[in-house]
Amino acid sequence: MDQVTTGLGVAHRHAVGTLTWAQSNVALLQVGLVLVTAALVLWAILFSNYPLVHDTFHELRHSLYFVPCH
Ligand SMILES: [Zn+2]
Q1: Phi–psi pair at 16, nearest 5 degrees
Q2: pLDDT at position 30
Q3: Residue 33 exposure: Cα atoms within 13 Å on the Cβ side
Q4: 37 CA from centroid of ligand 1 (Å)
């Protein structure tokens, strides 16, 4: 008897095969969230004028010649 009745077993079987429609949507959402978060962090480090963030990463900004600072 190799019948899998737990959610974990079903998820594992899908993981080794193709993703279901819902699973691929979740994966797309996760990739999108990671990209948006990375973009926000990069923007905050490189372009934010908030003094605490600006002063903390000031040397880094100057070491990257393409970032306008002052
Ligand atoms: Zn500067």
Answers
A1: -85, -15
A2: 95
A3: 6
A4: 25
- The answer on pLDDT for 43 being more than 80 is yes
Task: Give distance in angstroms: CA of 5 to centre of ligand 1.
Answer: 60
The torsion defined by the Cα of 15, 21, 22 and 28, in degrees rounded to 10, comes to 80
Tokens 């002052």 belong to 70
- Ligand 1 centroid – CA 69 distance (Å): 5
CA of 28 to the centre of ligand 1 (A): 37
Q: Is 55 helix (H, G, I), strand (E, B) or coil?
A: helix
Average pLDDT value for residue range 14-36: 86
Structure tokens at 36: 């948006």
Cα(67) to centroid(ligand 1), Å = 9
